[in-house]
Specification:
The protein is mainly beta and about 280 residues long. It has a domain at about 35-205: Regulator of chromosome condensation 1/beta-lactamase-inhibitor protein II (Methylamine Dehydrogenase, Chain H), CATH 2.130.10. It has 2 helices and 18 strands. The strands form 5 sheets. It has a 4-stranded antiparallel β-sheet with strand order 1-16-15-14, with no helix packed on it. The protein is globular, with a radius of gyration of 19 Å. It comes from Aquilegia coerulea. Keywords: Repeat. Pfam families: WD40_RLD.
């Protein structure tokens, strides 16, 4: 498990483009409900508009007009919707159980509520073929493709998990947010600790090797670094963003600089980041 201290993180994501906007209706200056407008590739009903047609401009998802939406997360070919009441809906491709509904449905054209989440959900995240949800108590649930251990359910877990499953090995840890890539996952705890697991190819987990991690194995080789404290003096007061496109993590923070050059985005590679940290501590 790769582990770092990350403070003041407000958002975490892994490598998927947005295809939605949240619109808030107001009447007389009074806040009303929020709803979703989506566009882009409509294959498998991933937009939740009741059809597979692609949309070239934002189109309101009428199936959820009666819900007050809090957040939306877009995966490879599926989308998760979170309401203010803590309910989760899913639409799109379900070939690996990533919708959290009956595996008999290979896809759905409109959002369906996920019934296997027992507690109020405050965050959701959609990966390429897997999904996650975090409860108000910091409990992590995951489901979908588990071919590389990206669900964190251990070696005995099935390769496809269609029902939201609690990640029991994190019972004593409160999860703050999660980001899902194609075959790996990253989480941040309420203590600012970053955890990574799943496919380790190209060093995307930050463990110092390319082996996959099926659970949360702590490495004695891991160097403890507090990124917030280590870089705040170098980049004080600036608002910066990391986006490593399916290789690392994307996050926003007021006192953090981690950049790489990928997809026309300027960033610092992990190797350069380590050099910066070593230079700072000298």
């Amino acid at each position: 498990m790769w582990k770092q201290k990350l403070k003041n993180v407000s958002k975490l994501g892994l490598g998927f483009s947005r295809r939605w906007i949240s619109i808030e209706k107001q009447v007389g200056g009074i806040r009303r409900k929020r709803f979703a407008a989506l566009w882009g590739n409509g294959d498998y009903g991933r937009l939740g508009l009741g059809k597979v047609d692609s949309q070239w401009s934002p189109t309101v998802c009428s199936a959820l007009e009666n819900q007050n939406l809090k957040a939306i997360s877009c995966g490879g070919a599926h989308t998760l919707f979170l309401t203010e009441a803590g309910r989760v809906y899913a639409t799109g491709l379900n070939d690996y159980g990533q919708l959290g509904i009956s595996p008999e449905k290979s896809y759905t054209l409109e959002p369906l509520e996920i019934s296997g989440l027992p507690e109020e959900i405050i965050r959701v995240s959609a990966g390429y073929h897997h999904s996650s949800a975090i409860t108000a108590n910091g409990v992590l649930y995951m489901w979908g493709n588990n071919s590389s251990g990206q669900l964190g359910l251990g070696k005995r877990a099935a390769k496809k998990v269609s029902k939201p499953s609690r990640v029991d090995c994190l019972n004593n840890v409160r999860i703050k947010m999660v980001a899902l890539g194609s075959e790996h996952s990253i989480a941040i705890t309420d203590e600012g600790e970053a955890l990574s697991w799943g496919a380790g190819g190209s060093g995307r987990l930050g463990h110092g090797h390319q082996s996959s991690i099926l659970g949360f194995l702590r490495s004695s080789r891991l160097e403890q670094v507090n990124l917030h404290q280590g870089l705040s003096k170098l980049y004080r007061g600036t608002r910066l963003k990391l986006s490593l496109r399916d290789s690392c993590i994307q996050l926003a923070s007021t006192k953090m600089a981690l950049y790489s050059y990928l997809a026309k985005e300027v960033c610092i590679s992990w190797a350069l980041e380590k050099q910066m940290m070593q230079h700072h501590h000298q």
